[in-house]
Amino acid sequence: AQKITQTQPGMFVQEKEAVTLDCTYDTSDPSYGLFWYKQPSSGEMIFLIYQGSYDQQNATEGRYSLNFQKARKSANLVISASQLGDSAMYFCAMRGGGAQKLVFGQGTRLTINP
Amino acid sequence: NAGVTQTPKFQVLKTGQSMTLQCAQDMNHEYMSWYRQDPGMGLRLIHYSVGAGITDQGEVPNGYNVSRSTTEDFPLRLLSAAPSQTSVYFCASSYRSTGIGTQYFGPGTRLLVL
Asked: What are the 10-residue block averages of pLDDT along chain A, 114 residues in total?
């Protein structure tokens, strides 16, 4: 069975600082994908970044990067130069075994302080 | 291109009532799924479909039915609503591929069962 663990229920960061949101995963599938989604207070799920298990380089999308450490089974999200608009819930999710269904972690609530 | 749409946005039901949550996408995605999000938790998969006429159960299917008669539509039926089904329901869709398979989410339906 696949499992995602996010150990930080909440984080508080000063504006313009970098922030790392932790995510560890468990799977026996050799092929899998890891996703990060942002959920602002308005409730929608916004796709941020994706990392495939066979990707050699860490994924980056603008201010977002994914610190993928396969041996440790971790896929931490790094947000550089945080902004007030980054305040939201962040979910790590996994897709594996050839299926399209996602398994989600419990999320981390990020608050950016001015 | 409207993406993934869901109706209604909000619904109040009495215990024992039935209703259908509507989901539609105009991106010609093969894969569609329903998730529920309970307070303080990540999303959990209810049912999913890999194409018209094909559906399967997810992690928490009890109390829900689905059908997929067209590529575009994937309604979720609550057979006899219970207070435990109070939740926010998200529909998602993606291409059925072995690649990134990013799932795009609808805006959600907030359901309250009294």
From this structure: 92 97 94 92 91 92 96 97 96 81 92 96
Terminal alpha carbon distance of chain A: 41
Put simply, whether B34 touches A (Cβ < 8 Å) is no
| Interface contact A105, partner B, CB < 8 A | yes
B82 vs B17, B59, B64, CA distance in Å? 8, 18, 11
- Does the distance separating the beta carbons of A98 and B43 come in below 8 Å? no
CB A45 within 8 A of CB B105: yes
Q: Which of A100, A101, A105 sits opposite B42 (nearest CB)?
A: A105
> What is the phi/psi pair of residue A84, to 5°?
-55, -35
